[in-house]
Amino acid sequence: MTEFELLNRIDSPADLKGLAIPDLARLAQELREFMIQNVSETGGHLAPSLGAVELTLALHYVFDTPKDKIVWDVGHQAYGHKILTGRRDRFHTLRQYEGISGFVKPDESEYDTFGVGHASTGISAGLGMACARDHLGQDHKVVVVVGDGALSCGLSFEGLNNAGALGKDLIVILNDNEMSISKNVGALSRYLTDVITAPLYNRIKSDIWELTGRMRRIGRRVRSAVSRLDQGLKAFVVPGIFFERLGFRYIGPVDG
Predict the structure, then answer these.
(1) Which of 122, 124, 253 is nearest to 192 (CA)?
(2) Helix and strand totals (H; E) in the chain
(3) CATH H-level, domain 7-182: superfamily
(4) Do 173 and 122 meet the contact criterion of CB atoms below 8 Å apart?
(5) SS3 label, residue 105
(6) Does the pLDDT of residue 35 top 90, yes or no?
(7) pLDDT at 213
């Protein structure tokens, strides 16, 4: 059995904050191994949580939970969150009779801020918490973690629209891991794809490629720069414009 030297010292996010930043990479590896070891016995939504390990560590390292509120949309990404918030010793009971829940559950832990399970409810829930915080004169942060699949649901758009209109201090993190259970559909997904398949886009790209081919000395370097710009256009320019128009200050993408 693997020894989890660092992970065994983490009983709450307060313990996590005592680690040096270089230790977090090692802790991330231990956390992944711990999840694989246990979920291989209990079953569960393993891949989304494995992909959110660094994000989970960063959230609990930076924010002051449970004072600051983290809302996990759906909850499939939250196994690492459960392990880091005092449930490591019970994680082997995941989804078992009288064991811990496979989803985020408020009556299980004060770190679980909202009972989830259905996709796309997180942004509206987080907005409600932000409104309540301001009404009560409190000063904590509210962070919502939503996947790309859940973002395409109508409830998420409703939450984004209302949040942008109200102008509340709300952080929404889009974990674009392409790990939704079903294929992403809808206008937003199609729009992001259309940007790099439109005839005008491809004609301009072809013209630039042909022009740089005539530049003997710097052509190769220019082509390399154009290629990087091409790859980053969909992930950077278009989503940024979309979210900024909804009233959010867009920062990203961040390679997690």
Answers:
(1) 253
(2) 12, 3
(3) Thiamin diphosphate (ThDP)-binding fold, Pyr/PP domains (3.40.50.970)
(4) no
(5) coil
(6) yes
(7) 73
Cα(214)–Cα(220) distance, rounded to whole angstroms?
10
pTM beyond 0.85: the answer is no
Instruction: Render pLDDT for 63-95 as a digit per residue (tens, 0 to 9).
Output: 999 999 999 998 889 999 999 999 999 999 999
Locate the domains of the chain by residue range: 7-182, 186-256
Closest CA to 117 of 103, 107, 138, 137: 103
pLDDT value of position 40: 95
Alpha-carbon span 226 to 206, nearest angstrom: 11
Both structure tokens of 64: 């002051």
Q: Return the DSSP state at 169.
A: -
Confirm if 69 and 141 have CB atoms less than 8 A apart.
Answer: yes
Whether residue 78 contacts residue 143, with contact meaning beta carbons closer than 8 Å, is answered with no
| 242 HSE (CA, 13 A, CB side) | 17
Is the Cβ–Cβ distance between 16 and 84 less than 8 Å? yes
How far apart (Å, rounded) are the C-alpha atoms in residues 160 and 156? 6
pLDDT digits (tens, 9 = 90+) for 214-249: 776 776 777 777 777 666 665 555 556 677 778 888
Q: Beta-strand (E) ranges in 148-247?
A: 171-175
In the three-class reduction of DSSP (H, G, I as helix; E, B as strand; rest coil), residue 172 is classed as strand
| Backbone dihedral region for residue 137 (phi beyond 0: left; psi -120 to 50: alpha; all else: beta) | left
